Amino acid sequence: MQGDPVTLYVNKVGPYHNPQETYHYYTLPVCRPKEVHHKSLSLGEVLDGDRMAESLYEIKFRENTEKKLLCQLTLTEKEVDQLREAIEELYYFEFVLDDIPIWGFVGYMEESGFLPHSHKVGLWTHLDFNIEYNGNSVIFANVSVKDSKPVPLEEGGAGHGAVGTGGGLALSFTYSVHWFESPLTHARRAERLRDYSFFPKTLEIHWLSIINSLVLVVLLLGFVIIILMRVLKNDFARYNVEEEGGCDDLDQGDNGWKIIHTDVFRFPPYKSLLCAVLGVGAQFLTLATGIIVMALLGMFNVHRHGAINSAAIMLYALTSCVSGYCSCSFYTQIHGQRWVWNIILTSSLFSAPLFLTWSVVNSVHWWSGSTQALPASTVLLLLGAWVLVGFPLTVIGGIVGKNRAGNFQAPCRTRNIARQIPTQPWYKHTAVHMAIGGFLPFSAISVELYYIFATVWGREHYTLYGILLCVFAILLSVGACISVALTYFLLSGEDYRWWWRSVLSTGSTGLFIFVYSVFYYRNRSSMSGLVQSAEFFGYSLLTALVFSLMLGTVSFWASLVFIRYIYRSLKMD
């Protein structure tokens, strides 16, 4: 109702070009209450670096205010230098009013001339709040400084428009509030925020690039499938004719992939690690699909701070049973004996690198005083979620998988003595297969990857979830088809070591994604400094690991299904 108080929370400040380097607003020498009261935040908001606190701004619904005094401060020389440094680093602030973020710059900086060089730094001491409403709802809010002049912060003395007292700089902070009626309803207010452009609009939808990428991928898949089907058809015809002529000479001469039918299902080394990779990969496939589906259902919007973070943590904990089940089930099928060790390895395969990376990144944030450093209560909450939910679900899933595991379905018997593998040409080596198998899936997502990076490491709000689902499906399809093709070429050379090769071939896509992240950091962003760099490269490594696990899992199962199919289709003794 008109005249009701509207609470304005101050949140954080930070360098404009370093989205993940943020500090509490009250770390700057600004107007603050005698006692700072913080707003209770959700887990996602804390993970997002939010630290909302009540402010001195008095705003009443639909009541305009003109140049009302906020407070008067006398800044010491050290505090003036702190503000100068913040302004020179292009610090922006974020306020929150009715879950609507409000952004603005702390001050103004101007560089002009070469000889003589002019360097001016000014502090905004007056803010104009423009708030749009519809009925009894706040629709949008922003802040403007176009009708005010900055107070110069001169080195070694008080600037024009401020009064120096006792070596300090006396400042008066004021604000105005203007209300405007909006035609948008409360349900559509997210559209207004989406159209606002305090941060640069780099996320223009390049439909032509996306369609071009999709067409190329579909053509690639069609090419691989058609070629493989024609080659296999000829192989089946030739091998089955040889079988009818007699099977005594099957092991003589070059018979391609049929000659290794007694070795192709020989279980690989490091069985426990392989099963752990497959289990965690299945977990992340489930998690990624769940996040995208939730986004398509409209569960994440621009007014729900940290909603995706909270959902990702919840789904990661709940899908731990998937990793335990898939890993322990397959481990039992391939005659693994140490199933307890397998469960422990599965539960720590991603959580251990995550904890190590988080420890380093969080230490850097803590050392710099950033709000991205998690408080102890949040750390204990996350640790409790893993200890009380994630790990027990992994164990339960593993036990169920072990008990429900059947026999490994192999259409061919395996000999006790392994066949000698002939020398392979250079183009069938693991490194070459990893280069081919990693580059092709990466090329399928390279366009969409830019949008994702601009969202995660920038200021954008990602909304193309339908396209993201299509690209995700195409990525998995390309990974599966490339893996099948590379596995066929490997078996044709009488090399039956396909188990780990199938995981590594398209799992190497993660390496290409990390290389792209380095390119993005250097050429597509303005990020700098230890804090932002530690955050970016630490979590980019984890992202690359997640993609490697997901694509390695899809690649392995595609190869296994393909191998079972081709050997089942032959006439065996």
From TrEMBL:
Chain segments annotated as transmembrane: 207-229, 273-300, 306-327, 339-361, 373-400, 431-453, 465-491, 498-521, 541-567
Pfam families assigned: EMP70 (PF02990)
Keyword Secreted: no
Keyword check for Transmembrane helix: yes
GO cellular component entries: autophagosome membrane
Localization (cell): Cytoplasmic vesicle, Autophagosome membrane
Taxonomic superkingdom: Eukaryota
GO BP annotations, alphabetical order: protein localization to membrane
Membrane topology: Multi-pass membrane protein
Keywords in alphabetical order: Membrane, Signal, Transmembrane, Transmembrane helix
Function, as annotated: Plays an essential role in autophagy.
Homology family: Belongs to the nonaspanin (TM9SF) (TC 9.A.2) family.
Protein name (Swiss-Prot/TrEMBL): Transmembrane 9 superfamily member
Species in which this protein is naturally found: Salmo trutta (Brown trout)
Organism placement in taxonomy: Eukaryota, Metazoa, Chordata, Craniata, Vertebrata
